[in-house]
Design a protein that fits this description.
Layout (H helix, E strand, L loop, with lengths): L8 E4 L5 H12 L3 E6 L2 H14 L5 E5 L5 H10 L5 E4 L14 H29 L2 E6 L12 H20 L5 E8 L5 H14 L3 H12 L11 H11 L11 E4 L9
Parallel strand pairs: 1-2, 1-4, 2-3, 4-5, 5-6, 6-7
Helix pairs in contact: 1-8, 4-5, 6-7
Amino acid sequence: MIIDLKGRKAVVTGSTAGIGRAIAEGLARSGAAVVINGRGEDRVAAALREIRELLPDADITGFAADLATEKGAEAFTAQAADCDILVNNMGTAKPKPFLELTDADWREMFEINVMSGVRMTRHYLPEMTKRGWGRVVFISSESALAVPKDMIDYAMTKTAQLAISRGLAEVAGGTGVTVNSVLPGPTNSEILSNWMKATAQSQGITQEEAEQQFLKTMRPTTLLNRFTTTEEVANIVVYICSEQASGTTGAALRVDGGVLRQIV
């Protein structure tokens, strides 16, 4: 299958590293003009340099803005006014026992993981529907369905994304715009990789051993028996953004390594 996204413009939020970065690179390789985003100017500038070195023929731009705030979202969309493909990847996770979570913790997690995507979609969806073509993807998580007890606030936001994605697919039904969500499992993203490095250092083991320990204790149902790569997650996102995926909308697509013991 040859995926050709020439002539399409994509916005990928939270894309200076990790899954978002891999998605941005994957879309660029398929010919899309890509706008990346991060909260800090330095991070965005560094990512732009690295991607342009890797893909010298790609059309890559980027803008720093904190999409977890209304002001930040407005500043970003003022610079990237329109797109054909929107990947709502911005997100974070902070393991913390439920009884220690404050109201501020809950609000912050919701603003970052949920409202950033709501704001972006609210801005870009109307023009997509007018043109009769568009792709919106929410990067959720297997934690949306298998709630970890040390990240209940995170899981709540990922479940919310599934509801929003399905609801928006209903709203966009028949317009040529598809809306889907993708559920990665344990992935060598920047956040989780840093956790594993810290765990390995504290226990005097290798990062691979720390990852295997995590899988055995926290995700024992894994069938892959390793962390997925960011590129493996990006591959399904690039497909969902393609012309070939026009028949898939309102779906929650898993890249979880078989962690979820479900047949649908």
